[in-house]
Design a protein that fits this description.
The protein has helices at residues 10-21, 54-61, 82-99, 119-134, 147-158, 178-188, 209-220, 231-239, 245-259, 266-273, 280-294, 297-303, and strands at 2-5, 26-30, 45-48, 66-69, 104-110, 138-143, 163-165, 172-174, 197-201, 206-208, 226-228. The protein has 333 residues and is of the alpha/beta class. It has one domain: Rossmann fold. The strands form three sheets. Strands 3-2-1-4-5-6-9 form a seven-stranded parallel beta sheet, sandwiched between helices. A two-stranded parallel sheet has the order 7-11. A two-stranded antiparallel sheet has the order 8-10. Helix 1 (10-21) packs across helix 6, helix 3 (82-99) runs parallel beside helix 4 (119-134) and helix 5 crosses helix 7 (209-220). The longest helix is centred in the first third of the chain and has 18 residues, at 82-99. The chain is globular.
Length: 333
């Protein structure tokens, strides 16, 4: 049994689908109120828990052999923040993984975790350190920014909103298609050459932040509506304290992606994992088809998997949906 955390996120959901395509058993750790039901068609099972709840982690890992950690916080809240979740939550998760005999943990981290001082990067580096100190076998994939990030900004421009870039945007990034990272994560579960390794992974094409954003705008079919945030305003935004610290943390993370060169050796990665990396524009086109469809209410409703949930006690496909409740209440953080 493979447990996947962060399964409702961009990387996590792609990883779940890749593993299920390979007919591997997958159990996802999901928080109550998350949109887990989009994964119902994969045949994975769900365990409702939280990285901050040790008891739920222990129960979720019961009987598991492998663990893929794709948890990510897009915007911190008072209850769900980098200190409590990214650092402390992952630390206790990795300790339990070692205690319960998990054979290998695959951690999705971020490119630049070892050099960038933005709080999100520092927290992910602390999670990496906790994994290496836990004693469990591991593979850490430091992933570049993915195509969804640029397409989301492009759709903002499509809707008439100007995108403010927190930096010059002339830095190079090896933008990583989500489907490629999912394959890398699946391969890392038993690939001998990545055992106890930290790998920087990205796409095969190094492209500037602005060029990637322009490509996304072209794919969406919208003119570029972007401009850099003025330096004084950016500096002020990065210095704000409580109660706006979570917003400054997001801004600091975005600035790192828009100012730092975060590239990888694409051919070496392709050789390590044994398959060709995706063309970035083609990946954007495929991802955008789904994003565009989900913006239409009727199409979204037609695509939506039944939102009633399979609780842990049920095997996917064996429960009578009419007998199940509508699901947990939405989370407050």
């Amino acid at each position: 049994m493979i447990v996947v955390t962060g399964a409702t996120g961009r990387f996590g959901s792609a990883i779940v689908r890749t593993l299920r395509t390979l007919d591997l058993p997958v159990r996802t750790l999901v928080r109550k109120g998350s949109h887990y039901y989009w994964l119902n068609d994969t045949g994975c099972s769900y365990f409702f828990g939280d990285l901050r709840d040790r008891t739920s982690l222990r129960r979720c890992l019961d009987g598991a052999t492998h663990l893929v950690v794709a948890t990510n916080i897009r915007r911190e809240s008072k209850a769900n923040n980098h200190r409590d979740t990214t650092v402390e939550g992952h630390t206790q998760l990795f300790a339990l993984a070692n205690e319960l005999g998990i054979e290998r943990v695959v951690l999705i981290s971020c490119l630049g975790a070892e050099t960038t001082t933005a709080p999100a990067f520092v927290a992910r580096k602390a999670a990496e350190d906790a994994l290496m100190a836990s004693g469990v076998d591991f593979t850490i994939l430091r992933a570049a920014l993915h195509e969804h990030a640029f397409l989301e900004l492009a759709w903002d421009m499509h809707d008439g909103r100007q995108v403010r870039v927190p930096g010059a945007g002339d830095n190079l990034i090896s933008v990583l298609p989500v489907r490629d990272l999912a394959k890398m994560a699946a391969a890392s579960l038993d690939l001998a050459t990545v055992h106890n390794q930290i790998l920087s992974v990205g796409g095969g094409q190094a492209i500037s932040f602005n060029d990637a954003l322009s490509m996304a705008a072209s794919v969406v079919g919208t003119p570029m509506l972007s401009s850099p945030i003025p330096s004084p305003l950016l500096s002020l935004g990065l210095r704000v304290g409580k109660p706006f610290r979570r917003f400054s943390n997001v801004l600091a993370e975005q600035r790192a992606w828009a100012t730092q060169n975060l590239t990888v050796d694409g051919p070496a990665i392709a050789e390590r994992f044994g398959y060709a990396l995706s063309d970035l524009r083609e990946a954007m086109v495929e991802t955008n088809k789904v994003m565009a469809a989900l913006r239409d209410p009727e199409t979204r409703e037609a695509m939506m998997v039944h939102p009633q949930f399979y609780a842990t006690v049920y095997e996917p496909g064996s429960a009578d949906l009419s007998l199940l409740p509508d699901g947990p209440a939405p989370r407050k953080d």
